[in-house]
Amino acid sequence: MAAPPPAWNRSPAPFAELFSAEVIAARVAEIGAQITAEYAPLSQTTDVVVIGVLKGSVMFLADLVRHIGVPIFMDFIGISSYGDATVSSGVVRITQDLSRPIEGKHVIIVEDIVDTGHTVHYLMENLATRRPASIKLCSLLHKPDRAERQIEIDYLGFTIPNKFVVGYGLDVSQQYRNLPFIGYVQGV
Ligand code: IMP
User: Is this structure's pTM higher than 0.85?
Assistant: First the structure.
């Protein structure tokens, strides 16, 4: 017997689609091209490390690096800010550290979303103490209405309104990360 359809295809769908898989793919390709152009000279002399922030950036990172046409290293860092709630506590901690030092290297942090900005603010301050050659921030999404910290995003996918979104790596209570699109959860 055939497996039941994925939950998000059951009717009525609990999501309102915001960005389709095709729209995301096109934007990710553009960002990859921009990073390629900017890092082509730098990468000839200095290592470039692309750091994915677990777990939300995994899909974005995996797609993005395949559009980066210069040599890179990949690493991951685990950050906890919310637990399972949808409201920022402002309390951030590292749950899994990088596997290698970043001293003297060009670092690109890849995030899923900058919401209040607490997570990225903490992360950039922490990584700066490790004396990389440079740090830039790449975020797929930005919710400027929620900003509590002034964050400069060097490479941004999309600006979104103040609604809770899921899919393409983003979760609510650890669910829906595997949706191929990004959507609002109805009723959240
Ligand atoms: P910030 O510290 O408030 O900027 O929150 C950043 C983190 O909160 C992100 O890396 C996400 O894990 C999570 N987050 C914030 N907004 C959303 C959302 O709309 N959907 C899913 N996760 C979110």
Answer: yes
